[in-house]
Amino acid sequence: MIDAQTRVIAIKNGIHELGYDMSFMGTPELQSISISTKKDDIVDDVVKVELNLTENHLNKRFDLYNQSLPDAKYPCLSMKANIDIDNKGNYYIRETNVSDPGID
Questions:
Q1: Can you give the C-alpha Rg of the chain in angstroms?
Q2: In this structure, are residues 5 and 30 in contact, taking their beta carbons and an 8 Å threshold?
Q3: How many CB atoms lie within 10 A of CB 94?
Q4: Can you tell me the mean pLDDT for 37-54?
Q5: Is the residue at 56 inside a domain?
Q6: Is residue 31 a part of any domain in this protein?
Q7: Cα 73 to Cα 63: distance, rounded to the nearest angstrom
Q8: SS3 for 3?
Q9: What residues pair up with 38 in beta bridges, in sequence order?
Q10: pLDDT per position as a tens digit, 66-89
Q11: Contact 58, 83 (CB under 8 A)
Q12: Is residue 62 over pLDDT 70?
């Protein structure tokens, strides 16, 4: 459980680095997670994880979070991430997509 939470924090930090306006604030809700294994040419038994997170803040809560992260401008973010975990526990974020209804 701690390891899973650490991974979510790492993903949130990675999204934050894409741009402050796209940052997740607070704890996003886990919508779905799928896990599968795959043999890789380089590493045996790669675990593939697809993670879907959302946050849907009401204006009052978003305004409160926004005091700590003033550049954030999207209260209803959705995120999909594809992560590979090798047999040594190293993880690689292959892809992240972040969206919000307010984005053109």
A1: 15
A2: no
A3: 12
A4: 75
A5: yes
A6: yes
A7: 10
A8: helix
A9: 46
A10: 888 888 888 888 888 888 888 787
A11: no
A12: yes
Could you tell me if residue 104 is inside a domain? Answer: no
| Amino acid at the residue 11 | I
Residue 11 lies in a domain: yes
Name the residue among 101, 48, 53 with its Cα closest to residue 80: 53
Domain count, the chain: 1
- Quickly state the pLDDT bin for 99 (edges 50, 70, 90): confident
The CA angle 98-86-90, to the nearest 5 degrees, is 70
Residue (of 54, 94, 91) closest to 75 by Cα position: 54
Q: State the residue range of the domain holding 39.
A: 2-99
Q: Is 77 left (phi over 0), alpha (psi -120 to 50) or beta?
A: beta
Q: Is the pTM of this model over 0.90?
A: no
* Type of residue numbered 27: T
Alpha carbons 18 and 14: distance in angstroms, whole number: 7
